[in-house]
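Moderator note: this is an archived Q&A kept for reference. The question asked for a predicted structure of one protein chain; the sequence and the answer are reproduced below.
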Amino acid sequence: MTTPPTIVLYDGWCSVCTSVADRLRQLDDNRDRLTLVDLRQDDTLLKQHNLEPKEIRRVMHAITPDGRVLIAMDAVRAAMRAVGRGWLIAWTRLPLISWVCDRFYIWFAHNRMRFFPMKPE
């Protein structure tokens, strides 16, 4: 029996988000451990999990195989674990460091459009 994939929801209009999604897709290497969903193309999961599109556009979301919805750095950690690379960012769970990383992620996500242009439609 195979484990269902971790689902990663991202904003397809955001160049940073699509770059991260592309990299995760490469790391998955067609092993179906991840399903990457551009919320701008498919809102089915948003309705199923009672998620707000505005919130998904704000930070990355992941839905684990057991149905938990994770956001921000927790979503990044879950995606990296799913593709077998969780060890690369395991240090971001350490006390104090996790607090700093979580806040930096939120700050960066909030300001990413200042640094990187929005993808054209």
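Archived answer notes: Residues 97-115 form the longest helix (19 residues).
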